[in-house]
């Protein structure tokens, strides 16, 4: 079992609040579709939800770089490179989404 704490642990409650708010936005979008809301109004809410998810993603990425990548780089060059590669793969996925 890995005893290493994740970089976001200090802001875990903040991330959980944000994700619960996003969950509420998703339910709101479902309700809008059920109620035959105007397309542009739904798209506006999708955009807001997308921005909220991006903010969470960027925050987690920043925490990962500042904590996990730095910690790994202090352990060894190989561990640091592996964490940087992992972060780059995550960044690539985020940019493509």
Beta-strand fraction estimate:
under 5%
The major beta sheet can be summarized as: none
CATH architectural group: Up-down Bundle
Categorize the overall geometry: elongated
CATH superfamily: Metal-sensitive repressor, helix protomer
The CATH class is: Mainly Alpha
Structural class: mainly alpha
The CA-CA distance between the termini, in Å, is: 32 Å
Instruction: State mean pLDDT (0 to 100 scale).
Output: 92
Order of helices and strands: HHH
CATH topology, anyone? Methane Monooxygenase Hydroxylase, Chain G, domain 1
Jot down its keywords.
97 residues, mainly alpha, Methane Monooxygenase Hydroxylase, Chain G, domain 1, CopY family transcriptional regulator, Metal_Tscrpt_repr_sf
Question: What would you note in describing this structure?
Answer:
This protein is an all-alpha fold and 97 residues long. The protein has one domain: Methane Monooxygenase Hydroxylase, Chain G, domain 1. It is built from three helices and no strands. Helix 1 runs antiparallel to helix 2 and helix 2 packs antiparallel against helix 3. The radius of gyration is 17 Å and the shape is elongated. It starts with 11 loop residues before the first helix and ends with a helix. The relative contact order is 0.12. The mean pLDDT is 92.
